[in-house]
Design brief:
Two copies of one chain form a homodimer.
Chain A lengths: L7 H6 E6 L3 E6 L6 E6 L12 H22 L3 E6 L9 E6 L21 H15 L1
Antiparallel strand pairs in A: 1-2, 2-3, 3-5, 4-5
Amino acid sequence: MSNFILNDTLAADTVELTRWPLCRVLLMNDSRYPWIILVPARADMKEIHDLAPADQTLLISELDRASRVLADLFTPNKINVGALGNIVSQLHIHVVARHADDDAWPGPVWGAHTPIPYEQTELKNLTEQLQNALQ
Amino acid sequence: MSNFILNDTLAADTVELTRWPLCRVLLMNDSRYPWIILVPARADMKEIHDLAPADQTLLISELDRASRVLADLFTPNKINVGALGNIVSQLHIHVVARHADDDAWPGPVWGAHTPIPYEQTELKNLTEQLQNALQ
């Protein structure tokens, strides 16, 4: 955890939901898709293979957990998982609940559209719902 | 391993490089990007969280291994990892070596362009190079 600082762009685009043993669990503020971002709270990580083996095992278990929460709450057609980082290099893993009628289906969400932020009440309610489910 | 059969589209788009304890390791036949696809050889898997915990641990270690091979051989600016499956639902994980001057940078490769297959000699040489590195 020593020198980990969440990247400014990730911080600006998201709301923190909780902190797990490895990752900060963030909600992407884009009302188009239920979209969680996992950020391993380790300094200077860029690639999944930069993580120590024990942290990689934590990552896959936290990814499993986040995916199940999205699957349970939103009954998506598919969960999309992505670690890209071409623009924001700090290691972060997208976990997105996709529906066959969403704006980018069947393409990827990354770079597809400008985010539409949630309304304030909607964001508050969704944050609480997710925080309860993620505990 | 019981009833696992590789999806026809994945088979048509790729060349098998090797088989690891969990995954078939495939080369995507798109000369735009060095691009490996990992397919867990388990029947009826659609999501990462469908895999048993022990298989999830295998998956992250095989992902680590594939990423390192691509990083060593192609010195990319970034490795992109994605499990989408909106079109082909059989669980498969893309591992792509990205360069800042490639055709889709900084966007994702998925859906960006029609693949440009390798020339026959190029494909043979690359397959051998990857097979040596992946062993």
